[in-house]
Structure formats: C-alpha cells, structure tokens
Specification:
With 330 residues, the chain is an alpha/beta fold. The protein has 3 domains: 3-64 and 121-215, 3-Layer(aba) Sandwich (Rossmann fold), CATH 3.40.50; 67-99, no CATH class; 228-309, no CATH class. The protein is 47% helix and 9% strand. It has a 6-stranded mixed β-sheet with strand order 3-2-1-4-6-5. Strand 1, helix 1 and strand 2 (30-34) form a beta-alpha-beta unit. Helix 1 (13-25) crosses helix 9 (193-201), helix 4 packs parallel to helix 6 and helix 11 (228-237) crosses helix 12. It is globular, with a radius of gyration of 21 Å. Bound molecules: iron/sulfur cluster. Residues 36, 116, 121, 123-124, 127-128, 219-220, 223-225, 323, 329 line the site of iron/sulfur cluster (SF4).
Amino acid sequence: MTLAHIVSVSGGKDSTATYCRAIERGLPFRAVAADTGNEHPATYEAVNTLHLKTGGPKVEWVKADFSRQIAGKRTFIERKWEEHGVPADLVSRALAVLHPTGNPFLDLCLWKGRFPSRKAQFCTEELKINPIDQNVTRPLLATGATVISWQGVRAAESEARKHLPPFQRIGGQHADLPGRLYVYRPLLRVESVDEVFAISRRHGVDPNPLYGWGLKRVGCFPCINCAKAELALVDQHFPEQIERLEEWGAIVSEACKRGHATFFNLVNDPVMQAEWLELERIGKALERFSLEQFGIRRMVEWAKTDRGGRQYSLLARDFSTVCNQWGACE
Ligand code: SF4
C-alpha cells in the first residue's frame, strides 16, 4: 500500500508549524499551497523559501483556472440576459470585461459576478480546497494510495475546532476512487500561538512579517472576513493593496447583473447600511449605487473610525466556517 503524506501550506503560522512537525516525524511528505492571486508578496516569499530554511520539501503551488466557467458565462449572458430584462448597456459592459485575467481570485469573482461574503464564502472551496483536491489529492487516490492530509488547526482557536478529532477518515466526494483519504491534525492540542511560533523557530523559520505589522491572520490579503482594525492596517502600510481592490471592484461591477459589486459587504458599516436601505426604500438603490459611496475607499474610512462606539469587526469572533474548520484559511 502506498502512503502519501500531504501538508497544506499557506504561509501562516499554523500551516508552517505543521510543515515543521512533518519534518520532525521524519516521514517523506509533499507540501502544497493554493495560489489565490490575492496574497501579499511576503506570503509568497515565506512559502517559496520554506524548503531552503528547513531542508524540507519545496512547496508545490496549485492554482484554480476559471477560463471554462467564464466562457460559459459569456455564452449565458449573450443568450439570456436581455431575455431576462437586463439592460443592453449592462450586457455589453459585462461581455467587455468577461475574459480570464489569470488571477484566480479576480477570475472567480468575474465568473460569479460578485465578491464572496461571509454568507456566500465560495472563495475557500473554489480557490483552495478544489485546486488542491483536483491537482494533488484525487490523482493520488486514483492510484489507490492512502492519503494523509496534514492540517494546521488548533482546538484552542474556536468552538468548532474544539470538537475536531486528531485523525479522521474522509469519505464522500472521493468514494469513486480506490484510495482512502484521512485528515491528520498534529497541532490540535497545541494551546498557544507562542508554542506554534516556537515549533517553526526550531527549524529556522521566523514568523511571516505580516504578523509583525499587527495582522492576526495570514491568507488572502486582505481576506473578505478581515477585522476592522486589520483593514485599517492594510491601508496604512500597504495602500497599493487598497488600490488593487478598488480596481477589482470596478471590474467585477461591470460583470455583475446588478451593475455593482463591492469587495466587502456594506452591511459591515452601520452608516453605509442605513444609506443603502434608504435608497432601497425609495426604489433608487440600483440607479444611484456608486463605488464612491459604497466601495472599498468608504469601507477603509469607516475602518479607521470607532463609529458606533464599538470596535466592530468584519470578522465574527468565532469564525466557524467550513474552510477554517479544515484549516484552508488561516
Ligand atoms: S482567506 Fe478569506 S478571502 Fe481568501 S479564500 Fe479564505 S475566506 Fe476567502
């Protein structure tokens, strides 16, 4: 029986410590990372240099490709949008931008005609889980191998993670394949963040510099679920990332049937939400929507305030989504 150990790496503290734990176990393993196209350069650097610092295996990148879905959406728009009453100018604007850019995050949003949100968090599955599954896990299972997927999750992080077992058989979507898939969570009982960093330091790996800037999580930069204070930090230290999101907001809005799309859900800011509800009440929401009023710049301005007297977070405290339960987004 072939046994394949696969460690998912994101450039964050937990997955890096998991990679180091795999080295300590002395087992041969492969390390994989999913390129979302929305990572900070420091994260690419951290992932790409991990093998040089530790002597472990080089991390293999996988990347989603939405060319086929975008082509399908073009066909659908050409055939159906006008039939569904979408104004002709919106149809031609959508067709003008609906071409693959090669950036997985942007292409996913072009295909969907919207950005992901906490309630519709399709990004994790489409950008991280599926590309690793299709490019690494499924091909191994197709050979009859037993695959052990190492995931850097800790019970102390959330209520949902507290109940996860350290070792778990995963069936379901791979039932058609001869191999067997298990998940192994070697950090489950590691209590503190300091302990996590200490594991990596034993192997000469310093924390991703983004933690030094005050960011609590490393993954997409920023994540759609980032905390209010983190968004303010991104703007303060990396304004070019906000510019990029502003451009993405304009492009994805063109591909949207409603004519607008925002990276962050505007309900995060009570003031913006009230303005939006008022426009809806008077029946002018679609007509008067503008990215100046509801887009990323406005959200950044809100992120710098204590508006409402609370340090309100875009990120719920117990971030118990499927992706984070599986350690796909740190
Ligand atoms: S890090 Fe955030 S934006 Fe990126 S895939 Fe995960 S949930 Fe989505």
